[in-house]
Specification:
- The protein is α+β, with helices and mostly antiparallel strands and about 300 residues long.
- It has a single domain, classed as Gcn5-related N-acetyltransferase (GNAT) (Aminopeptidase, 3-Layer(aba) Sandwich), CATH 3.40.630.
- It is about 30% helix and about 30% strand.
- Strands 1, 4, 5, 6, 7, 8, 9, 10, 11, 12, 13, 14 and 15 form a 13-stranded mixed β-sheet that branches. The protein has a two-stranded antiparallel sheet with strand order 2-3.
- β10 and β11 form a beta hairpin.
- α4 packs across α5.
- It is globular and about 60 Å long.
- Keywords: Transferase.
- GO terms for molecular function: acyltransferase activity, transferring groups other than amino-acyl groups.
Length: about 300
Amino acid sequence: MRWRLDSWIMCRRLADPLKKVVIGNTHHLEQKENFIKVKRMNTNEIVKAIDAHHWDYEKEWIPSYIETLEEDGLRAIKNPRMNNVFSNKVVEFSASDPDCRMNKWRMVKTFFGENSFSLWLERSQSSLLSPILKADGYEVTDRYDGLACMLNNQPAALPQNREIRLTDVEDEEDIQSLVEVSSTIWGYQEDQHEKLFDERKSYITSPYRKGGYILARKNSKPAGYSNYRYSSDGRTMFMNGGGVLPEFRHQGIYSEMVNFRLDHAKSKGAILATCQARQGHSSPVLKKLGFKRYAEYDYWVYNR
């Protein structure tokens, strides 16, 4: 067994600073660097890119307390400072042999100990592991589509809604709004807010970051957030988080945040944007905006 500290995931979704100035209906994006341009990716590469958003993070910035379990066909990430299922995950679990599956499951439970954790499993592997998980009190609570969009096929975005303002999160006031909005959307407990604030601030001020957070406001009120991160090779933008407060939903805010990030990805020379999107929620919106499904995932949590 190898225990490594060189990759991780938290429930955050991160990447390189992005600034936006709105003049009329034109989006102006500041660029810091140009990434390698490649014209196309095959299906296998796209699926790998969709999966990679769980672990393709900036190695220079990964906190020392993050623990990672990596074996052949098994990958899990543990954040001992955040005891929730969003920050502690199994993101890969594949084994065709029943004994091997059981042994790996024991390894996972030993690795997490008393920490609550979730499992993001590709559908075929989820079916194989299902009897073991159900016997231990786990159940599928959501299903996600692995979506991707080739950016050279992406149509131009529609003009922005003037009532919606999107800004890159940079100062402490915006970070606090980000924590409050994301905590409401995802149900984070209040006693975790200070840790979330510190972690967001640490990332946003890091010189190594390849991503960022976007705060959406409607009529000057915080309404939603999203984030993005570029892959280590620069070919892919991971659109790996975001949401809109209930009272602001169905008002075009989510679509605005998607188009904003796609514009940025194209300006950087990325060729692919990916997202693991919840079926029946963000997935239908993304499909309307040009994303296609390449994989499906079951989301398992303990429910006893």
